[in-house]
């Protein structure tokens, strides 16, 4: 059981990193230093960006739940 949740945690971690890196830079941070702030936003976020936000939040919640369950399983084994 611990092995299954550990593998799921690794998969969700990699997926979460990929999803976060897919987001557009909002400006005012490191993205401006490397030329990310040169683009102007046209009328807010697109449908694709909103869907990416929703998917990122869902994967983040699954990642958090996996950590909690893994912690509880490890604690109950000791």
UniProtKB/TrEMBL annotation:
<keyword id="KW-1133">Transmembrane helix</keyword>
<dbReference type="GO" id="GO:0009306">
    <property type="term" value="P:protein secretion"/>
</dbReference>
<keyword id="KW-0472">Membrane</keyword>
<keyword id="KW-0812">Transmembrane</keyword>
<keyword id="KW-1003">Cell membrane</keyword>
<feature type="transmembrane region" description="Helical">
    <location>
        <begin position="55"/>
        <end position="74"/>
    </location>
</feature>
<dbReference type="InterPro" id="IPR004692">
    <property type="entry name" value="SecG"/>
</dbReference>
<keyword id="KW-0811">Translocation</keyword>
<dbReference type="GO" id="GO:0005886">
    <property type="term" value="C:plasma membrane"/>
</dbReference>
<comment type="function">
    <text>Involved in protein export. Participates in an early event of protein translocation.</text>
</comment>
<keyword id="KW-0813">Transport</keyword>
<keyword id="KW-0653">Protein transport</keyword>
<dbReference type="Pfam" id="PF03840">
    <property type="entry name" value="SecG"/>
</dbReference>
<dbReference type="GO" id="GO:0015450">
    <property type="term" value="F:protein-transporting ATPase activity"/>
</dbReference>
<comment type="similarity">
    <text>Belongs to the SecG family.</text>
</comment>
<protein>
    <recommendedName>
        <fullName>Protein-export membrane protein SecG</fullName>
    </recommendedName>
</protein>
